[in-house]
Write a structure and sequence with these properties.
Elements: E1 15-17, E2 22-24, H1 25-33, H2 44-58, H3 64-84, H4 94-130, H5 142-145, H6 157-168, H7 188-202, E3 204-206, H8 207-211, H9 217-232, E4 236-239, E5 248-251
Antiparallel strand pairs: 1-2, 3-5, 4-5
Helix pairs in contact: 1-4, 2-3, 3-4, 7-9
């Protein structure tokens, strides 16, 4: 068996002393993960015994996190070693394939453990370095203070008093117009008469043309409702070649006579008592 040289280990770390390896436990994991050492050549029982002796030597100061990490990694190595000892050959049994997949999963967990270990070391070093930084809490140095421009106020006390008077003067209350709440009512029946007259004379018109002379939005809405009433009576037909395109209204009613337009939209809503 090949003896692998180990790197120097910190005093508080856990070292492994085997026939074919002596050094930090983390280095052993790196050699296995890089395929520089066969897992089958590692005596896990000796590793476990040395770790138990390491814990006992620490006494009451033993590290629970280090122990938990060792148990996880040792279990992973044990399963990995058991998977490597399986006979190789053609896979005929699905259970054998499952075992090989489990071996790959265990190896991936080993790499994941190593990555977390490296990230934790980086974060610890960064926190140690940044923890020594402190914000500047002293005044500006004299040589830089001389470079600052002088503050000049071009107005005097009287002008300051005028500014204060304008700022403290009571402001006029905002007036909200209520004209839009008292807009004159528009009769849907009257607008229907206008639409019928125009369609009987021109047969076909667009909605834009029918509402182009509407003086306000409420009149446009009334003409739209009138068209719906005429459609319900079968007097008009709608054509729209494309979605959201131009709406064309075609007259399909009689050439003369009056139409019975409902006064549903013109009815006054009953007042409700407080």
């Amino acid at each position: 068996m090949t003896v692998v040289e180990a790197r120097p280990e910190p005093a508080e770390g856990f070292s492994v002393h085997l026939d074919n390896f002596t050094g930090p436990f983390d280095l052993l994991l790196q050699l296995i993960s890089r395929h520089k050492m066969d897992i089958t050549e590692v005596a896990l029982s000796e590793v476990t015994e040395e770790f138990i002796a390491h814990i006992r030597a620490a006494g009451a100061d033993w590290d629970l996190d280090q122990t938990s990490q060792f148990v996880v990694v040792a279990a992973t190595l044990l399963d990995l070693k058991a998977a490597r000892l399986l006979p190789s050959g053609d896979i005929e049994d699905p259970e054998d394939l499952a075992l090989l997949e489990a071996r790959d999963l265990l190896f991936a967990r080993l790499l994941q453990y190593r990555a977390y270990k490296q990230v934790a070391a980086y974060l610890a070093a960064t926190l140690l370095t940044q923890g020594r930084r402190y914000p500047r809490d002293v005044g500006i140095e004299a040589r830089f203070a001389r470079l600052l421009p002088e503050v000049t106020i071009p107005i005097g006390p009287d002008q300051f008093a005028g500014l204060a008077a304008r700022a403290l003067a009571p402001r006029k209350a905002d007036v909200i117009s209520l004209a839009h709440l008292h807009a004159p009512a528009v009769s849907v029946r009257d607008q229907a008469v206008i639409i019928v007259d125009r369609l009987r004379r021109q047969a076909t018109m667009t909605f834009r043309a029918l509402t182009g002379d509407a003086p306000d939005m409420i009149t446009t809405v009334a003409r739209f409702l009138a068209l719906l009433e005429l459609f319900r009576e079968g007097a008009v037909a709608f054509e729209q070649l494309t979605p959201l395109g131009e709406l064309t209204i075609r007259w399909t009613g009689t050439e003369a006579g009056e139409l019975d337009i409902s006064d549903e939209f013109d009815a006054t809503a009953p007042e409700t008592s407080a």
